[in-house]
Amino acid sequence: MSTLWHAFQRFAERVSMGCNAIGTLCVLALVAIVNYDVIARNFFNAPFMGAVEVVQFSLVFIVFLQLPDVVRVGRLTRSDGFLVLIGKRFPVAALWLQRAIDTVAAIFMTLAAYAIWPEFLKMWKTQDFFGVPGVFTAPYWPIKLVIVVSAVMCLLLFLGKIVGPPADAAAPDTSDHGLAGRARAVKEAD
Predict the structure, then answer these.
(1) Percent of the chain with pLDDT over 90
(2) Which helix (H) or strand (E) holds 23?
(3) Using the 8-state DSSP alphabet, how is residue 48 labeled?
(4) Among 59, 64, 57, 30, which residue's Cα sits nearest to residue 140?
(5) What is the per-residue pLDDT across 44-87, written as a single tens digit (0 to 9) for each?
(6) How far apart are CA 164 and CA 130, in angstroms?
């Protein structure tokens, strides 16, 4: 089971880091497009037609491509002050509370994937698009696919946090984002 677990963790880490890298490339492409539009609009009176649509399209891509890596490293926006407080005195309780929070997050990601999957299938079948015909159009289905893949990847990562070992035994994570590592470090210090 341990070998299977480590293989799953390596797979999840690689996929989430790959998605994050693609999201970062989308940010760079977005910067280039916006700069091109500003320069072309102001100096040549020839704006990039569809710049607004590209920005709208890419923002969803960027958020959902980078979400799995955010989950992987434990950097979701949240207030964990209470967890840190009880983690110092009751590390096991803090660990189980964190797992309960991860369970709620996993349920939410399941619902998101479940809700978007039929929309993806519909958009794939109908080839609906957004934008202004003759100016700039793009299909909706890639956005829906990225949302579904991201939600499923986040679900798998949350499941790993729920059922997996609290932290790497060889190198406990005692940083601000590693509650499980802090819980074990405090317990070992007692």
Answers:
(1) 46
(2) helix 2-43
(3) -
(4) 57
(5) 988 888 888 888 889 999 999 999 999 998 887 666 778 888 88
(6) 42
Contacts of 71 (CB under 8 A, 6+ apart): 16, 105, 154, 157, 158
Distance CA 166, CA 186 (A): 13
Q: Which residues of 102-125 are buried (b: 16+ CB within 10 A; e: fewer)?
A: beebbeebbebbeebbebbeebee
Other CB atoms within 10 Å distance of the CB of residue 18: 13
Mean pLDDT of all residues in 91-95 = 89
From 167, 184, 190, 183, select the one nearest 85 (Cα to Cα). Answer: 183
Strand residues in the chain grouped as ranges (E): 129-132, 136-139
Model confidence at 166, pLDDT cuts 50, 70, 90, reads confident
- Which residues, 6+ apart, have CB-to-CB distance to 166 below 8 Å? 95, 180, 181, 183, 184
Place of tokens 């509370």: 97
Say if pTM beats, i.e. exceeds, 0.90: no
Helix, strand, coil percentages, rounded to 5, for the chain: 75, 5, 20
DSSP-derived 3-state class of residue 152? helix
**Closest by alpha carbon to 23, among 66, 54, 72, 53?**
66
Q: What is the pLDDT at residue 1?
A: 60
Cβ atoms of residues 17 and 155 within 8 Å? no
pLDDT of residue 173: 43
